[in-house]
Amino acid sequence: MASVVPVKEKKLMDVKLGELPSWILMRDFTPKGTAGAFQRGYYRYHNKYVNVKRGGVAMVLAAYMLFNYCPCYKELKHQRLCKYH
């Protein structure tokens, strides 16, 4: 038997379409609640992408591509604006 979770404690992805209006009304839209939501989002992003314990190959590859793209941007921008007939 599945345990019943109150609508207020559900994550947005777990809320069914019929429960969505009541879920939105239960959110805290005060300035303190909104600031807390932004703070949680910032910390989630920071811990996932910035404060990593061990970077993977994709992270190194993305940094390599970015640092090699920056010096060539001026030439690439000119080529982007050219018309080919």
TrEMBL record:
Biological processes, Gene Ontology terms: proton motive force-driven mitochondrial ATP synthesis
Q: Name one GO cellular component term.
A: mitochondrial inner membrane
**Sorted alphabetically, which InterPro entries does this protein's record hold?**
F1F0-ATPsyn_F_prd
Q: What's in the keyword line of the UniProt record?
A: Acetylation, ATP synthesis, CF(0), Hydrogen ion transport, Ion transport, Membrane, Mitochondrion, Mitochondrion inner membrane, Phosphoprotein, Transmembrane, Transmembrane helix, Transport
Main location, first listed in the record:
mitochondrion
- Give the record's membrane topology: Single-pass membrane protein
Superkingdom of the source species:
Eukaryota
Q: Which GO terms describe its molecular function?
A: proton-transporting ATP synthase activity, rotational mechanism
Question: Where does the record place it?
Answer: Mitochondrion inner membrane
Which family does the entry's similarity section mention? Belongs to the ATPase F chain family.
**Self-association and partners:** Component of the ATP synthase complex composed at least of ATP5F1A/subunit alpha, ATP5F1B/subunit beta, ATP5MC1/subunit c (homooctomer), MT-ATP6/subunit a, MT-ATP8/subunit 8, ATP5ME/subunit e, ATP5MF/subunit f, ATP5MG/subunit g, ATP5MK/subunit k, ATP5MJ/subunit j, ATP5F1C/subunit gamma, ATP5F1D/subunit delta, ATP5F1E/subunit epsilon, ATP5PF/subunit F6, ATP5PB/subunit b, ATP5PD/subunit d, ATP5PO/subunit OSCP.
Quote the function comment for this protein: Subunit f, of the mitochondrial membrane ATP synthase complex (F(1)F(0) ATP synthase or Complex V) that produces ATP from ADP in the presence of a proton gradient across the membrane which is generated by electron transport complexes of the respiratory chain. ATP synthase complex consist of a soluble F(1) head domain - the catalytic core - and a membrane F(1) domain - the membrane proton channel. These two domains are linked by a central stalk rotating inside the F(1) region and a stationary peripheral stalk.
PANTHER family for this protein:
ATP SYNTHASE F CHAIN, MITOCHONDRIAL-RELATED (PTHR13080), ATP SYNTHASE SUBUNIT F, MITOCHONDRIAL (PTHR13080:SF16)
Q: What's the protein here called?
A: ATP synthase F(0) complex subunit f, mitochondrial
Protein's organism: Ursus maritimus (Polar bear)
Q: Which gene is annotated as encoding this protein in its UniProt record?
A: LOC103677437
